[in-house]
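SEQUENCE, STRUCTURE TOKENS:
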Amino acid sequence: MASRALKYYYDLLSQPSRALYILLEQTKIPFEKCPVALRKCENRSSEFVQNVNRFGKLPCIIHGDFKLAESIAIFRYLSREFQLEDRWYPKEGADRARVDEYLEWQHANIRAQCAQFFIYSWITPLLGMEVNQAKVDRLRANMIECLDVFEREWLDEGRKPFVAGKELSFADVVAACEIEQPKLAGFDPRVGRPHLAAWMERVRVATNPHYDEAHKILYKFTPKEIETPKVQ
């Protein structure tokens, strides 16, 4: 099955799109790049919905004649079909369960809180809609609380080098891509969190040059007062 053509539909402004893009490049899985512009609502076109992803969302894949949506489902599919290295998704039961634990936890926590703050603070004004500052403050407070939990529980206040333990896994890539997103809205999650900042740099170094390649557009639009890597 792994010999069939793999098409990857993505937009690098999308956090899970970046995570899977980094994984595909890092693991050298052959794939066809199929960028889709969320800003132009290309993912909502009738052609896309009918022929690519019935849910009209990114990322998604077509592998031969098999279509699949949802980033975590895609990751697990790729890990089976292409027999990814253990470090991405360990075969040992307890180690794999720890990666799965984070991937399940993050949906209603890191992903939800960072995305809600980003969407309301950054996307809403772009759409010409009024922003309620009290709501921004509430969403920021929720996100800050969640980031503090992440640093305390998943990084063990710096005693764990990576989310699932001693080795980098896909859980780290997913988490880092989500935590990068609020920078676009002027919030630097690294400030006041030295353990989180050190972990983000470890993930970046371990997955470069693909990490910076995936985040190039995010770096470009991040406010100048927030430090970002210089990428050509």
Observations:
- Residues 6-84 form a domain with the Glutaredoxin fold (CATH 3.40.30.10).
- Strands lie at 6-10, 32-35, 60-63, 66-69.
- The chain has a mean pLDDT of 96.
- The chain has two domains: 6-84, 93-221.
